[in-house]
Amino acid sequence: ENAHQLQSQKDTVTQKLQETETRNAELEAQLVELEQRLESSQVEQEAFRKSLRSLLQLLDGKIFELTELRDSLAKLIEGGGS
Amino acid sequence: ENAHQLQSQKDTVTQKLQETETRNAELEAQLVELEQRLESSQVEQEAFRKSLRSLLQLLDGKIFELTELRDSLAKLIEGGGS
Amino acid sequence: ENAHQLQSQKDTVTQKLQETETRNAELEAQLVELEQRLESSQVEQEAFRKSLRSLLQLLDGKIFELTELRDSLAKLIEGGGS
Amino acid sequence: ENAHQLQSQKDTVTQKLQETETRNAELEAQLVELEQRLESSQVEQEAFRKSLRSLLQLLDGKIFELTELRDSLAKLIEGGGS
């Protein structure tokens, strides 16, 4: 009688364990996937920021060239023919 | 004898179940944290992009104003005193 | 006989004098006109140069504003969300 | 008596003619000088305007390059990693 009851309890717990292990495997898969998404997002953001830095350098160049043009205009106005 | 063995097996499985449930709770906490980090990163990125869009509009304005200045200079050169 | 000759010479010189005075008046009129054109050209050139100086100041303003925009972009890139 | 008077009148007119011719030569010299200044001023102004046209073309180039940079920024913002 007692053995029968114990066998039944053991079966229930074993069943519960299997379900929990399955859930565990699912959670681990989700974690791996999320970690990959986060890392991929960070790689993308770093590439984005790098492209922005290149544009910033181009903008610096354009501002420098506009300033040279401005200086040429100033010299021309002050030194140009009377 | 059999009951004793069953009890021992049941205890082992119960022990394993508890460990697995603990691990499960940890994984769920990690998932929640990662999901929050991912969402927070997306909110930040959207704010970043929004600020960049504002800068782009400012740049559009500056280019428009430089073009107006360029047109004024062109008119001045062609129509200015002989 | 001598008086007749002298009268003729005097007439010739008087005629030459009138022609020379007429030419003189023409030259003075041309001079006045040229001086007015030169002065008018200088006034025009000064107005031209003044307009160019205004454009130069506008250009200075635009370069300053582009530099501010560039600084905003630099801050955004370095401080923006990771 | 008459001959003496005529001689005196002739001398006076001849004197006046010489003065007028001298003045005439001065006026012609002034005219030549003014014409040269006016022409030189026009040459200078044309060179000035030509230099301004070169600057205008440079400015056109800079505005074009800023517009390209603006387009690159727009593409980056809209297409960049999420």
End-to-end gap of chain A: 122 Å
Rg of chain A over CA atoms, rounded to whole Å, is 35 Å
Q: What oligomeric state do the depicted chains represent? A: homotetramer
Query: In which range does the helix fraction of chain A lie?
Result: over 70%
Largest interface: A-B, 26 and 26 residues
How many strands in all of chain A? 0
Structure, explained:
Four copies of one chain form a homotetramer. Chain A is an all-alpha fold and 82 residues long. In chain A, 95% of the residues lie in helices and 0% in strands. Chain A has one helix and no strands. The longest helix of chain A is centred in the middle third of the chain and has 78 residues. The termini of chain A are far apart. Chains in contact: A-B, A-C, A-D, B-C, B-D, C-D.
Quick recap of the structure?
Four copies of one chain form a homotetramer. Chain A is mostly helical.
Topology, please?
Four copies of one chain form a homotetramer.
Chain A: H1 2-79
